[in-house]
Design goal:
Elements (H helix, E strand, L loop, with lengths): L1 H84 L5 H16 L3 H5 L8 E4 L9 E5 L2 E5 L4 E10 L2 E8 L7 E5 L12
Antiparallel strand pairs: 1-2, 2-3, 4-5, 5-6
Length: 195
């Protein structure tokens, strides 16, 4: 019986060892599960913060694309203005334009004034009768300007626009608005030849 008792003791010790191992394993597994859960929660927080950061980055990228598009338009406009400013207007052309206006200012008849008008589409002139009696006017596209002698006085300002010289002159009290003369080289009305 002693053998039986000894066997029973060893069996109980073995069961206690197995139970101890099982309990320690269970504790270790619980601890690992808690660590994994904490890691999972941390990863979920990181993913959430990365999603927010990604959304912010995408929003900023959209804003930057819009800003880039706007800046490209501004650069395009500036390049056009720059190329217009680089247009070949020589000082001699400017002097000739001033000289032409001075000659135009000195004319006393509408017939002489017509010589200074370029022949282009939708340009015309009119007088009260076929004799050239004034009031007289020049027509440009959809606008008519009454001609009166000796109304242009002093040069007020000038600009260069895409190869054209724009001269703005003050006028006498006879007219309500200042003249702006765009100087261009073209055939005039009296330069035409009939076939």
């Amino acid at each position: 019986m002693d053998l039986k008792k000894e066997f029973l003791t060893w069996a109980i010790v073995l069961l206690l060892v197995i139970a101890g191992i099982a309990i320690f394993d269970n504790l270790r597994t619980s601890r690992l599960a808690a660590e994994l859960q904490a890691d999972r929660d941390g990863a979920a927080e990181k993913v959430s913060s990365l999603q927010v950061e990604l959304e912010n980055t995408l929003s900023e990228a959209d804003e930057l694309r819009e800003e880039q598009k706007r800046l490209e338009e501004v650069v395009g406009d500036l390049e056009q203005k720059n190329s217009a400013m680089k247009s070949p207007v020589r000082y001699q052309d400017f002097k000739e334009a001033i000289s032409a206006v001075e000659k135009y200012k000195s004319v006393d008849t509408f017939e002489d004034a017509i010589k200074f008008i370029a022949l282009v589409n939708f340009t015309g002139f009119s007088t009260l009768d076929s004799e050239g009696t004034c009031p007289c006017s020049f027509s440009f596209v959809n606008r008519s300007i009454e001609w009166k002698p000796n109304v242009i006085t002093d040069l007020k300002e000038f600009t260069l626009e895409e190869g054209k010289i724009a001269l703005t002159y003050q006028t006498t009290a006879k007219l309500r608005h200042d003249y702006q003369l765009i100087m261009t080289k073209a055939a005039g009305y009296l330069d035409q030849t009939e076939s």
